[in-house]
Amino acid sequence: MFDHKPTKILTANKINILAIWLVIGSILFYSASKYPLQETFKTVYSHIPGWIEPDDDVGRDIFDLINSRGFEYESHFVETVDGYILQLVRLVNPFTKYNQTRYRPVILSHGVECTGSEFLINNPGYLNSDGTYLEWDENDNLINGSEKITNTLGFTLCSYGYDVWLVNFRGTIYSLNHTKLDINDPEYWRFSMDEMVNIDLPLMIDYILATTTSDTLTYIGHSQSNILMLALMSENDHYQQLVKPFIALSPTWHLTNVRSNLVFFNLFEPYLKLSPGPLVFHDMKTVRSVLSTLCSNRMIRWICYQIYDMSVGYQPSDIRLDRFPVHIYNIPSGASNDNAIHHMQTWRTGRVSHYDHGLEKNLLLYNQSEPPLYNVSRINSAHMAFFQASHDRISSIEGNIQLKQQLSTPLLEDYVINRTDFDHMSFVWSKHAGILVNEKILQLLSLYENDNQTC
């Protein structure tokens, strides 16, 4: 029997740090939302001792990030049956764009409160005129993509000729539009992971396959996106045939032995249930700007870092601390209260099921008192690879063992990274992601290079 109770991880010092952070954050959030004067705040705050000028990537949206590296992009929009307008961003290597579709399309699918930009912000870099991507590490040493695998997954795959699609689920900053509802309308936010599983994800897969005329595609998910794909495959056999391979970076299915302070969101569930709404704030840009500015001060940054580390893991030996304001600027990026509640239900019950609406509505929607399980034993795909970390504070090895025991077929790859400083966000932001993650991904993708080439 697995224990789903949170591990006691908060020391007295960390509680004090958390209290300080909550007080500072509350004041700043209130001020920023009531008086949207981010530039004034930055000007005043920059005169406080310890100020460090933020990285150029702070303030850049996903499109600016792409252009700043020398890549191009295409924006694609799809409309869901319930009116949400989802934006898909396709990376284009201008030096190889006529040859870009020689490999199957690759979806990069983000975690909760993230967007496609999480796959673009590991290192600064630029695209060489020969189509090679180059990056700078924290010591300003050049990483030549033709000699060593670079760390930033999205740009790395595109420079290797893959047709990369960055998807953005409903409620995120790049998919906020709706045919009828405004984001200030509570009804806009009435969605959980179920809608992403049953509506958003299959729609985006179908659109990409139709646009590229490919028969299959690669899906690389991080965190929540792996829950979505596993749930979709368990409900619809068709997508088991379309996704080859499915690479799960931190599978995050069974929330067993979670060592993150995020479990304490469970205390706020009654409040979140009062009304549908955004998990953080409507004005995400203001929140992200204030947080990234706040954490640009070296005297405050360690507090920011401690909170982040306690949540999703952030070790300076593994993730560049100088990139912290960039990461903060890109997370949070939008999610609903019901999305968070759905995760809480999974953690509390140990069951990965449809959203629990309560007895009366469950009987109406599901014809049973409890929400039905997403039955992963129905998945028989031989094209799934799990990338796990032994010290992932959210996706534990024990939880992944339980998941693998439920699957009907062995994994294509069962890969565990055994580093004490490699954690949940390390899969996309580690200093060693090129060697530990991206190189392994490219090896797996090479197995499919001659399968279903489009030109």
From TrEMBL:
For this protein, the record's InterPro entries field holds: AB_hydrolase_fold, AB_hydrolase_lipase, Lipase_euk
The entry's active site is 223 (nucleophile), 392 (charge relay system), 424 (charge relay system)
Q: Which domain of life is it from?
A: Eukaryota
Which keywords belong to this entry?
A: Glycoprotein, Hydrolase, Lipid degradation, Lipid metabolism, Membrane, Signal, Transmembrane, Transmembrane helix
**Mind listing the GO molecular function terms for this protein?**
hydrolase activity, acting on ester bonds
Boundaries of every Partial AB-hydrolase lipase domain copy: 64-122
The membrane spanning regions, by residue number, are 12-32
Q: What SUPFAM superfamilies does this protein's entry cite?
A: alpha/beta-Hydrolases
Identify one Pfam family in the record: Abhydro_lipase
Q: Which GO terms describe its biological process?
A: lipid catabolic process
Q: Which family does it belong to?
A: Belongs to the AB hydrolase superfamily. Lipase family.
Quote the protein name from its UniProt record. Answer: Partial AB-hydrolase lipase domain-containing protein
Provide the species name: Dermatophagoides farinae
